[in-house]
Each structure stands twice: as C-alpha cells, then as structure tokens.
Write a structure and sequence with these properties.
124 residues; mainly alpha; 5 helices
Length: 124
C-alpha cells in the first residue's frame, strides 16, 4: 500500500487487481492441495468424528488489514481524522471493498463458493 502513496486510482486499478490475483492463486492452490493431495479428509479425526463434512468444504477469501491500509492512505493524503470518522476515508474504503468484490468475480476457484451466491445476502 505504501508504494502507491495516496494515489487511490493506482490502488484501485493496479494494487487491488494484483493483490486479488495473488490471493486467488494462493486460495486455489491451497484448496486443491487440501482436498486432492493431502488426504486431509480421508485421515482427519474431525471428519471421522463427524465434526466436519468434506461435502461442506469451501475455501475462504477474506479481507483483512483494511483499517491499517486506511491509516497509510490517511497519512499520505494528510487526513487527520481516523478511518471510521472520516467521510473521505470511509468512501475510499467502500471503493476498495467494491473493487475487491469485482476483481474476485473474475476467478473461478475450485472448492470455493461466494456466500451471496448461496444465500440471500446482497454484497452491496
């Protein structure tokens, strides 16, 4: 985030797509390894004891460190209000989350479902 400074357009158009691609590649490789290569579901006591069901497995794609990213952006833009109290930072954060959502739609990650595809939750 620091390399983009306060350039929100670069963050949205360069940083977020790169970060989402890296996370998607990692989640995909990890999911395939867990399900197909590690024998986790064949050997885990959690499956044997009925605590987890392999048919319900899904990888998770999440957002973390948004507040820390907003602190970096605030410093670079000279915004003295903290994230959550600054309308400008809040708008930037929403734009970042929307961009992550849009970019994540580009990837078909095996063993992953989007929660709003299987429920009535609206992403935005």
């Amino acid at each position: 985030m620091k390399e983009y400074g306060g350039d929100v357009d670069r963050i949205l158009n360069e940083g977020i797509p790169l970060a989402v691609r890296c996370v998607a590649d990692l989640v995909s490789a990890r999911s395939v390894f867990i399900v197909e290569e590690s024998c986790f579901f064949e050997t885990s006591f959690l499956v044997n004891e009925g605590f987890i069901d392999p048919d319900n497995f899904t990888a998770m794609f999440g957002i973390y460190a948004l507040a820390e990213a907003m602190d970096v952006i605030a410093d670079n833009l000279g915004i003295n209000e903290p994230y959550g109290h600054s309308e400008e930072l809040n708008s930037i954060a929403v734009a970042i989350v929307r961009k992550i959502y849009e970019e994540a739609q580009r990837y078909d990650i095996k063993y992953t479902i989007l929660i709003w595809e299987s429920s009535k939750i609206e992403p935005f």
